[in-house]
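User: Can you help me understand a structure? I only have the sequence.
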Amino acid sequence: MKVSIIMGSLSDSPIADKVVSKLMEFGIDYEVKVISAHRALKSLEKYVKESEDESEVYIGIAGKAAHLSGVIAALTTRPVIGIPAKSSHLGGLEALLSTVEMPSGVPVATVAIGGGENAAILATEILAIKYDSLREKLKDMRIKMKETIDNSEYEYKANK
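Assistant: Let's start by predicting it. Here is the structure, written out as tokens:
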């Protein structure tokens, strides 16, 4: 089981680090590449074609025009998860819209702006359809999340 993580530029590496960290927790193999859909289209086409036999899920991370995930989805029938990245001007809204607004027949599952951890969890959920061990790890993660909430103590005191 392997997930391919493709960043549009090195500036997306903090998000990729979150993806990698979570995939490592689940014991999922991964590969990280920097390939711009706009500046290196032929390289992206080549990579997706060559990696498709091993990669079961692709994660694209891009900001601004953010066409990376959509182009990946056009090149493969494997699931593609898009992570919109913040840019300096519009806070990632433009990347969110570019990633989520895909034409019929070429879907990209899209997580929140900068949502690296959720992208990794979604990739794990997709893989868990095939791999029972991941399903159990996901169940354990959810139990731990619930226990954390159940065991947190907070008492609200209204100002009087």
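Now, to help you interpret it: The two ends are 57 Å apart (CA to CA). Strands lie at 2-7, 29-34, 57-63, 80-85, 109-110. Let me know which part you'd like to focus on.
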